[in-house]
Design a protein that fits this description.
The chain is α+β, with helices and mostly antiparallel strands. The protein is built from nine helices and 17 strands.
């Protein structure tokens, strides 16, 4: 069993009468990056600030490798790089050494870090001379130059152009492979969470709702909040299960690889659990009441409901063409 590196136990935090964290607990194994998602105001940034020692929890504990977190163990990458304008890039990256708050600089590590992040030609430039992506790369280098065992990411790419964000995410993954740090990566973007997190945690109203590998959360979301956060094209349909009205969800990739027979029918085959990230977006109308036999009983999907999916690699998808889709009852989520 992989030893727990970061243990967050029963944290609570309120600002006045507003409870931001409510008995929040989470364990992250040694050397793993967990992506943390949640709606705005769910407490993600407050959680990171408590772990980093920038805020004090009302109750609860945070520990690393079984001990309280000490100075110098945490690297923090903010939404904005917060570089000192009067210092050049190299001076910003090495600021902790300037204050003698870090052990001796590992020159080989510094050179490798600068090379991976592509900062070599910018070391003597001031922050005002950098693009947003370059400045954030400098912020990442500053957080990682001390080789801290724990790294916190607070939506670090939310203000970076999408094409640059993709490249920086790849650099972060490379650095994680090289350095082996334990990370908590906050993001509001499903694709980013799926790419960056070996596991994904979802919080709601200051509490942990669900955590686990991406496929587990995609296939068995604990509630509608989890499903909506991870599935941009999540279908929520009112349905009846043996006379009881409920919400049934179908993810954008939740169509069965089932072949239908008969004239004019076509197979709908998902390529992977992340199929919705590329392909042709299709909207279809449930033409008639559809009954499905499920383990919970007989489920009825009403006529007139629109369902949406992304079908990858299917060149025959055309406007106005008739298709027959098969939905596997095991791919339905009941709420």
């Amino acid at each position: 069993m992989t030893p727990v590196s970061l243990r967050i136990d029963a944290l609570t935090k309120s600002f006045g009468s507003e409870a931001v964290l409510n008995n929040f607990s989470l364990n992250i194994p040694m050397g793993q990056v967990t992506a943390l998602m949640g709606a705005s105001g769910s407490g993600k940034s407050t959680l990171l600030r408590i772990i980093a020692g920038l805020e004090q929890a009302d109750t609860g504990t945070v520990s690393y490798a079984g001990e309280p977190i000490s100075n110098g163990q945490v690297g923090f990458i903010f939404q904005e790089p917060v570089l000192y304008p009067h210092l050049n890039v190299q001076e910003n990256i090495l600021f902790a050494y300037r204050l003698a708050k870090a052990p001796a600089l590992d020159r080989e590590h510094f050179t490798s870090l600068i090379g991976t992040l592509g900062l070599g030609e910018y070391l003597h430039k001031k922050p005002s001379q950098l693009s947003g992506g370059q400045a954030q790369r400098a912020g990442i280098a500053r957080a990682l130059v001390r080789k801290t065992p724990l790294v916190l990411f607070d939506e670090p790419l939310s203000n970076v152009d999408p094409h640059l964000a993709q490249a920086i995410r790849a650099d972060i993954l490379t650095l994680h492979h090289q350095l082996g740090f334990t990370g908590l990566y906050v993001t509001h973007t499903p694709d980013e969470a799926l790419q960056m997190g070996q596991e994904i945690a979802v919080m709601e109203q200051g509490q942990l709702v669900q955590t686990g590998p991406a496929r587990q959360l995609l296939q068995k979301p604990a509630n509608l909040q989890v499903a909506r956060l991870l599935n941009p094209l999540y279908n929520e349909l009112p349905a009846e299960l043996e006379g009881q009205t409920m919400t049934v969800g179908i993810s954008a990739h939740g169509f069965s690889p089932r072949y239908e027979t008969g004239q004019g029918t076509l197979p709908v085959i998902p390529r992977s659990a992340w199929a919705y990230t590329s392909g042709t977006r299709v909207e279809a109308l449930i033409a008639r009441d559809t009954e499905l036999s499920t383990a919970q009983g007989l489920l009825c999907l009403p006529a007139g409901m629109v369902i949406t999916a992304v079908l990858p690699g299917l060149p025959w998808v055309e406007l106005g063409k008739t298709m027959y889709w098969a939905v596997d009852a095991e791919n339905l989520h009941y709420f």
